[in-house]
């Protein structure tokens, strides 16, 4: 990609803290207007990456470009692209309007009261909290507080909004609602969103592209579907979605088969035609997940693996019990041969 199209670019960026390489030789290009997530376990270098993009940390080596301009070594306040970190904690004693306008009121010259009022109304409208300006933050639900925090960041009209684990503190239901809200919001405002998370569901559901990190390195960057269907190695396949690994055709390789690609039936004969693998299996465990049933099964030949049986198929196949001897199989195109590392 050319520099002009990317709003942020890392070229061979490394950041060391003493002996720790928090970020190691990363190349990444963030496109203007996209929703990009950095996904990886705790300690893999996500926050450090964001802080270097914003200019709060400087790389030990490598270069950072913003809209094609080399800004390596330039501190945050002198950078040519307005990047805002979303901060989640609100001031509890301030009204929603005062929380949202906090950044504007710190500016010099300070905008007029009318200007501030208008900007607050616009920002609250963006997060669908019109009319909430006079409330105190403790009078709001968790989801509303999250939206106020977003409005407080958006009022600065950033080119890039940096979100570091924004939904981590929310319960599962609210997190799911906020995932949809964030995605809609990003489409509406057209601001580049850069979100950091250790939660794969969050990254996959919201993002245009996901960058998977491990131990300071970027393993793979791609659309959620690319990562899911074409992971480059075992780590990415394992981190993005659930999968089964079997012995591969040669050393250092494994075979990955997603559990939803595996068919089950009462016997090998009753499996559908055209499957490349067909084995008798014993049901070890069964978890009802609503739209799916997750089975853990064991085969003499392949060992233990997981199968996701959709509710719909249960009408044909029935529900199997723990201890049942049944059969499992999959089509050749469900197989991915991947390097171990
Ligand atoms: N200011 C710092 N001083 C020393 N080590 C740090 C500092 N910031 C981060 N690290 C280390 O760098 C690694 C990556 O940290 P971080 O970027 O915060 O990871 P993540 O956000 O993915 O959890 C960790 O090993 C962490 O302990
Ligand atoms: Mg972090």
Brief descriptors of the model:
341 residues, alpha+beta, Rossmann fold, OB fold (Dihydrolipoamide Acetyltransferase, E2P), six-stranded mixed β-sheet, five-stranded antiparallel β-sheet, 33% strand, globular, binds adenosine-5'-diphosphate, binds magnesium ion
Q: What is the CATH third-level topology name of the largest domain?
A: Rossmann fold
Helix and strand run:
EEEHEEEHHHHEHEHEEHHEEEEEEHEE
The helix tally amounts to 10
Total beta strand runs: 18
Described by the principal axes of the CA atoms, the overall outline is globular
Output the CATH homologous superfamily of the largest domain. Answer: P-loop containing nucleotide triphosphate hydrolases
Helix content: 25-40%
How many domains make up the coordinates? 2
> What ligands does this structure carry?
adenosine-5'-diphosphate, magnesium ion
Give the DSSP E fraction (strand runs of 2 or more residues): 25-35%
- The assembly state of the depicted protein chains is single chain
Question: Which architecture of the largest domain does the CATH hierarchy give at level 2?
Answer: 3-Layer(aba) Sandwich
Concise synopsis of the structure shown:
This protein has helices spanning 46-54, 96-100, 102-105, 113-126, 142-154, 172-189, 200-206, 224-229, 234-239, 311-317, and strands at residues 6-17, 20-31, 35-39, 61-66, 69-70, 83-85, 160-164, 192-197, 209-214, 217-222, 244-247, 253-257, 263-265, 277-288, 292-299, 303-310, 325-330, 335-339. It is α+β, with helices and mostly antiparallel strands and 341 residues long.
